[in-house]
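Lab notebook: predicted structure, single chain.

Context: the supervisor wants predicted structures on file for every construct in the current expression panel, including those that have not yet been purified. This is the next one on the list. No modifications to the sequence; it matches the entry in the shared construct table.
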Amino acid sequence: MSLRIEKLTRHQTVAGFDCGEEPRIGSWSTTPTRSVNLTDELDQFILAKVASGKFENASEVVRAALRALDRDEREYEARLAAVRAAIDEGDASPDAAPGVFERIRAKHGLPLTR
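Prediction complete. Output recorded below exactly as produced.
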């Protein structure tokens, strides 16, 4: 299934013609649009969310999913930065054996420096 979320500028009319003027009767603006190809499973997921009454339409489901993805990626990057900082702190510690992290990185095929 394809999901189409359309973007209409303030210059587009209902018929889709750009009049190049300020909006008038028959004109409107909305949010950006994208065409998205979905698997049957994702389509059914979206339909179920809308049928549950929690969402008004497919666009709301997609926007909620994208917000969740954005949040998850930001959280992942924050955790990764914390782990890297801890590694750097341990590497700089006087208790760390010389070259221990270089040996670990080499053993696991990781880059020696970031």
